[in-house]
Design a protein that fits this description.
The chain has two domains: 2-56, Arc Repressor Mutant, subunit A; 62-184, Tetracycline Repressor, domain 2, CATH 1.10.357.10. Helices cover 75% and strands 0% of the residues. It has helices spanning 2-31, 38-45, 49-55, 59-82, 88-105, 110-115, 119-141, 151-162, 171-184.
Length: 189
Amino acid sequence: MPNLWNDTIKIHRREVRDAILDTTAALAAEHGLLSVTMSQIAEETGIGRATLYKYFSGVESILLAWHERHVSGHLEHLANIREQAGSARERLEAVFEAYALIAHEHHNTELAALVHRGEHMAQAEQELNGFIRELLIEAAESGSVRNDVAPDELASYCLHALEAASKLPSKAAVHRLVMVILAGLNPRV
């Protein structure tokens, strides 16, 4: 019986935490970062301020936690795409396309400027670079990607190039960017 109780409490805490994160992000998007207060968050989520402070020290800590969850979701999405069937080149293309679309949809906002710093971003970037590097190695071994550039360099080049998607006007432009990057990866003849 105690395990059921503990599980119920964990689920409740996770649901409260998720409600706080989602509400804070929505308020920041609607009203701007500087106007969001802990009182607003407490009122919108229907929890007391004292309870809110048990979870987070302030609005910035909530937004950083929201962003960590958001980034983890993106990495999981990309990892799922990477694991799908197909050749190494097809999986590389699918991951590039998905990453470029993420960059395109989440471009330069006030919120992005706040949360795109810190240790969680460095770790996420390292993880992303690692699995792009692994895809490039697989594709190079199959002969579908150039092998005359070190995989670490190639992964870094590709990720920086894909970041340009954040400034593009349309999804069609994002797709064209991915095709240009992939063309640059073609094996040398």
